[in-house]
Specification:
single chain; alpha+beta; Aldehyde Oxidoreductase, domain 3; Aldehyde Oxidoreductase, domain 4; 3 domains; seven-stranded mixed beta sheet; five-stranded mixed beta sheet; 19 helices; globular
Amino acid sequence: MTAVGRRHPMLDGAAKVSGALCYAADLAIEGLVHGAILTSPHPHARILALDATAALADPAVLGVFWHATMPADRYNSAVWLEGQEAPEDEAMFPGTVRHIGDRVAVAVATSPEAAEAALSRIAVDYAPLPACLTDGEADRRRGAPFAPDGTPTFLNPLDERHFRHGDPAAGMAAAAVVVETEVRTPKTHHCAVEPHVAIAMPLADGRIRVLSPCQSVHATQVVVARALGLAPRDIHVVKTPIGGSFGGKAEPVLEPIAAELARRLGRPVRIAYDRRRVFTSTRMRASARVRIRSGFDAAGRILARETEALIDIGAYATGGNYLPGSMLQRHVRLYAIPAERYHGRAVYTNTPPTGAFRGYGSPQINAAGEIHLDIAAARLGIDPVALRLANAIGPGAVEPFTGLDVGNARLRECIAEGAAAFGWAAWRAAGGGTGRIRTGVGMAAAAHINGCFPGSDEATTMTMVLGADGRVAMVSALHDLGCGSNTTLAQIAAEVLGVAPAELRIVEADTDLCGYDLGTRASRMTYAQGEATRRTALALVASIRAAAALLLNAAPDDIGFADGAVTDRRGGARLGLAALARDLGGAGIVLPAATVTHTATANPSSHAAHYAAVAVDTATGLVRVTDYLAVHDIGRAINPMLVEGQIHGGIQIGIGYALFEDVANDPVTGRMGGDSFARYILANSLEMPAVAVRLIEAGEPTGPFGAKAVGEIATIPVAAAVVNAVNHALGTALTHLPLVPERVLDALDGGEGAPMVAGGRG
């Protein structure tokens, strides 16, 4: 291998660190005007009237628009493709606002400052309505209208999923020990460095162009079209470089509004959120309350498991209708359990809407399952590593929900090799001590998907063209979210073509240029688009050989190709790609090109086992993670350096999820406590431990060069590993994330988390 498996720097890395890379907010566009969004101060209210007279008195203000003057077409911002059915309960500007931060109006002006100033001069008359602010209250309203004020009625639950496998009752009856826990996870935000921004402009052909740091140009095209009442062909979407997403830019938020304003005003419009609006008015990870009851035999084998998940998706459906099923799919991919019962439901509340965030349901359900398993291990008197090894799935296991083969699953290797490398047995034997500072270790395992198969939309098209300068252009719906996907796919193509990755020219996703692809989501980029890249590169090699044969008056079999050059096997000269392109052009021969549409035929699991050591200050309740090891079943690392980078970033998010992060929506007022970087606590560099990474590269037959995903699974087991370490250090049974000092101290004082939450027999 000359390109795959190499620690190649990001192709755009130098441009990023030097400031040369141009993000959407940096674009200088002639005639650009600016929009600013007025948001609701109420969690639930009907908008009776709006007076913009004072705002429009400023000559810099070009207009103020609200629900009475903007399209009323309802849409779902989480759809991926035309024809997809999902609850359409969102509008650009609703007549009834459903959370603090909901969109009320937009002011457009010749400068961002003038647009923002105009907002304070808009008078709005609200009629407050009763608000539902907690998941428990929402769940109690089952089957009743969420708000009796029009269509849609926002019935709870939005989605409900029941699943049964085997005979759970018989498994529980046969169990030696039955353990029950309830784990609660918070709503958390992506905190990408780049805030949300969208630019739209009218085109001479009557279409509207949208420039967006999005995760799918085709999904953005469909959502914007629905919101404007247009056909997708009327919207042209171009992806701009992304300054971080983690799922936060998977759904169009500002793009429909910018597009409508561009159409209405006939000039380019940019809307950019400040940090507070990013928190209160975009998307975040859903909170969950997960109750698990498991029956074990004396040796620790899980005989049956019952899971109930209540998911708070906030004020709008977005992708919340998929979450109960998504959680279930991940939940049953980790351990071989003969009997399962699952009941998941997603409910509306008058809090900001939720969406994708690095795992889409996996962090919540995995935290619940892995914290539960550690509490069970303590009840059984079994080491947590041994308990997981006794139940871990292996290669070729069939996941019971979808019936899919999980592929070359190396979960056991992750657990066993991780325990040995971390020195697990020695850590556990050492004990946590009895002084003020207590130490402990914890671990957690995880499984995650590689794409959306068997969904009918799991296809991707790649085109490669040899340019006149000898460089190969890669054209597809490729969405690098800042993590180096461009570089990874270039390495795959470079391996086949025998050239350096930098010799490839990558074209950003553009609906006018690229075939359909559902975008960067569901950990499908390397696995699905990577395989499309590999196959297209092979097809391009065949096209290059055919063109060279025509040029050299030879049969295609007489032409060899290796190391980025063609060779006439009859003894002729060797031509590099630049020389070949020059000679083909001179001879009037069409330059070689290839297009391949690849549809995934499998959905294997990626697996991981993470190990954490913590030190807990029993006087202050502060927790510090001191050592960390992540072991990942990666199949094949296309770029080990980028894989390690993904894992380090995932650990940072997971530590924050375990210990600090919570947007903290007030259950009485609906106000968000963590609506800025000053008030929302992240795991920063000082909170990060020494991190070691080990990769299990056993290969995945259906992945490109054996590769599978790491992007989302990197964060999934982290929170449970940290929480389990804290519980080991303190002898507690903490299950309510995040473990802020107050919760730790309360448990030490005999409050929640101090006694083990466990059921008896039956």
